[in-house]
Design brief:
CATH class of the largest domain: Alpha Beta
Order of helices and strands: EHEHEHEHHHHEHEHHHEEE
CATH superfamily of the largest domain: HUPs
GO molecular function: ATP binding; pantoate-beta-alanine ligase activity
Family: Belongs to the pantothenate synthetase family.
Bound molecules: pantoate
Number of domains: 2
Catalytic activity: (R)-pantoate + beta-alanine + ATP = (R)-pantothenate + AMP + diphosphate + H(+)
Pathway: Cofactor biosynthesis; (R)-pantothenate biosynthesis; (R)-pantothenate from (R)-pantoate and beta-alanine: step 1/1
Subcellular location: Cytoplasm
Helix content: 25-40%
Largest sheet: 6 strands, parallel
CATH topology of the largest domain: Rossmann fold
Number of strands: 9
Distance between the termini: 44 Å
Number of helices: 11
Structural class: alpha/beta
Length: about 280
Amino acid sequence: MYIAHTIADLRAHLATARRPAFVPTMGNLHEGHIALVRQARPLGDATVASIFVNRLQFLPHEDFDTYPRTWDSDCEKLRAAGCDVLFAPDEQALYPEPQTCKVHPDPALADILEGHFRPGFFIGVCTVVMKLFQCVQPRVAVFGKKDYQQLMAIRHMVRQFALPIEIVGGETFRADDGLALSSRNGYLSEAESAEAVQLSMALQAMATALRSGERDLAAIEARAMQSLRARGWQPDYLVLRRRADLLTPSPGEPIVALGAARLGSTRLIDNLEIDT
Ligand code: PAF
């Protein structure tokens, strides 16, 4: 695996690649990331991953400084997964001057749910992804469905800017108990790790209610919030939304359940596409 730390080195190395397939990450890689790399491999002629903890997508009180940085094991995992090129710029290499020119995704998507609770988050994400796209110039890029709203914001950005990049969604990778893998799971205590699957179970309960014919979405959402609160969580939202744009669904439209909740000091997110 070739490791490039600068944009110039990366571009020189990828000069002959006709169809780079790209998986952007912030490192601290787990099986979920590695599954995305494996998914990307047959889609291009060079598999490229990036590791960059993007300051722009963290609020001042969030965990930018403490976000786990696990360079050696990340490299080992990427090599084992058959990644060809790792782009790992430092802040000076990717943001040599303050990044004042930013991508502002459509507020209708970017200011709700995650964007409501983490203002500016999708500006930070779309800006860095746009910049990484300019560096790697992929023809295909794979993003996990675990970050459902992020995947939608990236798809929308790519469509609106007519970027010649196919965006592929990778299924959420879950532990045996159903917990969605996340770098932030590492913050959980042993007791919290056992409890964490309850977020996914709350989404499952919402799906069950819908499938059994219940149509009062607000009541289903309120029950899910209450069930987590009763277990000591602090939920930000548990909602049933239209898959197409994450707005309120009309009867018969495909639905996704999305949830974000804090367990102790760790904020977890998850989602579930529901076929009724
Ligand atoms: O999902 C992530 O890890 C990050 O948001 C991404 C897409 C790598 C941008 O920093």
